[in-house]
Amino acid sequence: xxxxxxxxxxxxxxxADAIVNAANSSLLGGGGVxxxxxxxGGPAILEACRALRASSYGGGLPTGHxxxxxxxxxxxxxxIHTVGPVWxxxxxxxxxxxxxxxASLRVADDLGARTIAFPAISTGVYRWPMADAARIAVETxxxxxxxxxxxxxxxxxxxxxxxxxxxxx
Length: 169
Ligand code: AR6
Prior knowledge:
Helices cover 36% and strands 22% of the residues.
């Protein structure tokens, strides 16, 4: 059985088997969650990302895909990097965003992770409206078969928390 939890806070302060990073396709860092994860997790994460770029992901990680690295100094075993889509307006296809959650959970299952912490992917620099992103996130993880026992959404502010709370009992 999988339980869903919402937490208001900083994802880099979470303890979980896997922490999900809202990365970009370069895997080489950025702002927002990505910057915070690399800062607190230390250079081991970037080193592992560089190794991925030099091997399986020479062209970068495509949107909607996910890949794991060690978590460095974070209180986690792995960071699962996924690349959200950039909001292109009301006609934006929601599937790549749903795919980030599906792919991340698949990677978590492959790793044997039992707890996973997600940020609100695409809702910062990539501008996806929070209400819509929250609905997509919760509906996607709810309907996916997984061995993960706890899925935690870590929301950075009250607006994000409330948007997710609307979809979680
Ligand atoms: N903990 C939890 N949530 C956070 C944190 C944190 N420490 N910091 C920000 N948020 P973003 P994106 C929230 O921009 O939209 C990067 O430069 C934030 O308020 O991190 O997928 C990457 O390298 C927002 O609600 O990710 C990419 O280039 C949510 O996390 C690009 O940004 C996601 O914001 C990815 O953009």
